[in-house]
Amino acid sequence: MGKSKAGQGLNDKQAAFCREYVKDCNGAQAAIRAGYAPKNAEVTAAKLLRLVKVRDEISALLGELLQEAKIPLERKIFDYWMIRAFYDITEIISVNGVMKLSDEELRAKGLHVCIDSINQKVSAQGETIITYKFADKDRAAEMLQKYIRMIREEVTIKGDIPVIKIAEKSVLEGG
């Protein structure tokens, strides 16, 4: 977490309080960790939290934390769709329908996201039949294209509203 711009105008203890407060949102403990007297920590925290500049700094710091958390989440989502779009089914299952990998191996390779469902039933002859439903690679590729904005959804508006369509360059054209 970097130094926010809102922190200008705060003294060192107030800035420390803000940094400590965003860790657990416990005002009294944040005040103590920031160097304020433990005896009056709750009162001090309440006073600090009423200051606009302190609230602004806490908001800025929380915004930074949320942005930092967003990047790994976006990466996970991107990786999920990449695996679903480009997996090799022959790595998972043989041509005669036998799973090549154990559950642990599927998870270790990240391929578990390619199996949407596993159904097991017993035939009239008493044989156990297992069927697998695998990820739709075309759908996953489409989701990736939307994510990286190769595909833009067109919105149609009906009525007497004048509409101006502005064409955007596609990603492939460098736009």
Detailed description of the structure:
The structure is a single chain. The chain is mostly helical. Helix content is 50%, strand content 9%. It has helices spanning 12-24, 27-33, 41-50, 52-86, 89-92, 103-109, 137-147; strands spanning 115-122, 128-134. A two-stranded antiparallel ribbon has the order 1-2. A hairpin with a 5-residue loop joins strand 1 and strand 2 (128-134). Helix 1 (12-24) packs across helix 2 (27-33), helix 2 (27-33) packs across helix 3 (41-50) and helix 4 (52-86) packs antiparallel against helix 7. The two termini are 32 Å apart. Mean pLDDT is 83; it is low at 170-175.
Tell me briefly what this model is.
The protein has seven helices and two strands, in the order H-H-H-H-H-H-E-E-H. By secondary structure, the chain is mainly alpha-helical.
Task: Describe the protein's topology.
Layout: H1 12-24, H2 27-33, H3 41-50, H4 52-86, H5 89-92, H6 103-109, E1 115-122, E2 128-134, H7 137-147
Helix pairs in contact: 1-2, 1-4, 2-3, 4-7
Q: Cα-atom Rg, whole angstroms?
A: 27 Å
Overall mean pLDDT stands at 83
Roughly how many Å apart are the termini? 32 Å
Task: Walk across the major sheet and give the strand order.
Answer: 1-2
In percent, how helical is the residue content?
40-55%
Biggest beta-sheet profile: 2 strands, antiparallel
Q: Beta-strand percentage?
A: 5-15%
Structural class by helix and strand composition? mainly alpha
SS element count, helices: 7
| Oligomeric state, counting identical vs distinct chains | single chain
Please provide the count of β strands: 2
How many structurally independent domains?
Answer: 2
Order of helices and strands: HHHHHHEEH
**Segments where pLDDT lies below 50 for 5+ residues?**
170-175
Shape: elongated
